[in-house]
Amino acid sequence: MKARCTECGTRYSMDSIRYECRCGGLLELVQDFRGVDAEQLKREFAKRLGERHTPLASGVWRYKELIAPELPLEALVTKGEGNTGLYSPPAVTSYAGCRRLWLKALGENPSGSFKDHGMTAAVSHGRFLGFRRFACSSTGNTSSSLAMYAALMGGEAHVYVPEGTVSENKVLQTLAYGAVVHRFAGTYDDGIRFLREQAGELGLYVGNSVNPFRIEGQKSIIYETAQDLSWQLPDWIVLPGGALSNVSALGKGLRDLYELGFIPRLPRVAVVQAEGASPFHRMMEAGAAELVPEPAPSTRASALNIGHPPSWRKAALVLQETKGVTVAVTDEDILNAKAVVDASGVGCEPASAAAVAGLRRLVSHGIIDREETAVCLLTGHLLKDTDAVGAYHLGGGPEALYANKMNRVRL
Ligand SMILES: N[C@@H](CCOP(=O)(O)O)C(=O)O
User: Fold this and answer.
1) Is residue 174, in this structure, part of any structural domain at all?
2) What span, in angstroms and rounded, lies between the C-alpha atoms of 221 and 210?
3) Are 334 and 276 in contact (CB under 8 A)?
4) Modified residue N6-(pyridoxal phosphate)lysine is at which positions (predicted)?
5) Residue among 350, 351, 296 nearest 164 (CA)
6) What angle do CA 379, 186, 250 make, to 5 degrees?
7) ipTM of this model?
8) What number does the ligand 1 atom closest to the CA of 310 have?
9) Ligand 1 pocket check: which of 115, 182, 193, 213 to mutate, most ligand atoms within 8 Å of Cβ?
10) Segment (H or E) for 312
């Protein structure tokens, strides 16, 4: 396996784990698709949709040839991740305002978030290299996913979670999977800095998105979405932006599909940040070449509470390649959009709803045309943050749209 620095182009052989280049740039794996018969692969991917109880039944490992061809099947740590629903509820489409909208419900993954797509790849690779101890910095979804896969393979998980700003549901889920939870005063960004400096010394395999194998697994999200839509992607892919790993993985997956001829053109990408944690949006809006980190990010969409997203350079490249845009939305916009997604029967956590809120704003500002079509990636499950649900529906949230449906009755 080979990796290349996304900034200076230096190449590395990946016989051991490496997260960054000597220049400090992030790495990406180089896949060699020469000799791949795309039509034959498409048929194979369609056939695997009917598999059950084999590693290739997973919505990640279905695409193994494009993700980690060298990993033996026995090395895979998998729980049937992927295979999530793609829905088109009319209420959400009319709320967003575009002609056709699909919601990719990534919260239906085994640990309840999109992180499972990447984590099955990272933990499988770590196990293949002989690691038993895994680590991450997290706002809660990465930690739950890492803890689940580490437990499945009989390994240890050490997770670094900021104190006070992470949904308790996620912390409890992580603890329940058996992880050692290290809480600290600070943000996700501090945890990443700590692991970048200490993981090697401590013998820890890092499952964050600075790990290029995580990104390889995560790119299957767009493979699966494209396959769900018979390889006809809509005009726009809209997704929330925190650490921006989902944007870099989306970009890599789109490049693969285009290069292989699976899709005839690249859709445009819209990245939505929460106003209180929007360093990437501010950089793009200003046309700046460097990201200025936010020292104290703050949003109710806790998964987006990130001031220094490690993948910002990769994400900027994706926007350049896809003629993409960014937008920031308020917490109020996010929670109102979430109430609409929840009431449609699909449901999601607050950070995911940022995608719908952002789409609505982009349509109302004419940046996305009303006649265009979009997929919103809903990154996490409604039950990931029940405090947000309670505050909105029972605590007189920003616009207690549905609160009047809660009756207290005497029977
Ligand atoms: N919201 C994320 C932040 C971590 O991002 P990662 O892409 O580095 O794993 C979380 O759930 O922890």
Assistant:
1) no
2) 18
3) no
4) 115
5) 296
6) 25
7) 0.98
8) 8
9) 115
10) helix 312-322
Helices H, strands E: what count in the chain?
15, 13
Across 284-306, b (16+ Cβ under 10 Å) vs e yields beeeeeebeebeebebbbbbbbb
Give me the CATH number covering residue 311.
Answer: 3.40.50.1100
User: What does the pLDDT read at residue 397?
Assistant: 53
Question: Which H or E run contains 145?
Answer: helix 141-152
Domain span including residue 17: 1-30
1 and 109 co-located in one domain: no
Kindly state whether residue 203 falls inside one of the protein's structural domains. Answer: no
**Contact 209 CB / ligand 1 (< 6 Å):** yes
In a domain, 244, yes or no: yes
The total number of structural domains that make up the chain? 2
* Residue 188 Cβ < 6 Å to ligand 1: yes
In this predicted model, what pLDDT tens digit does every residue of 246-293 receive, in sequence order? 999 999 999 999 999 999 999 999 999 999 999 999 999 999 999 999
Is the CB of residue 79 less than 8 Å from the CB of residue 149? yes
Tell me how far apart the alpha carbons of residues 352 and 241 are, in angstroms, rounded to a whole number.
9
H or E stretch covering 325: strand 325-329
- Report whether 167 contacts 387 (CB < 8 A): yes
Report pTM: 0.95
d(CA 67, CA 87): 26
Cα 116 to ligand 1 centroid, rounded to whole Å: 11
132 touches 386 (CB < 8 A): no
Angle subtended by helix axes 312-322 and 245-260, to nearest 10: 40
> How far apart are the CA of 40 and the centre of ligand 1, in A?
35
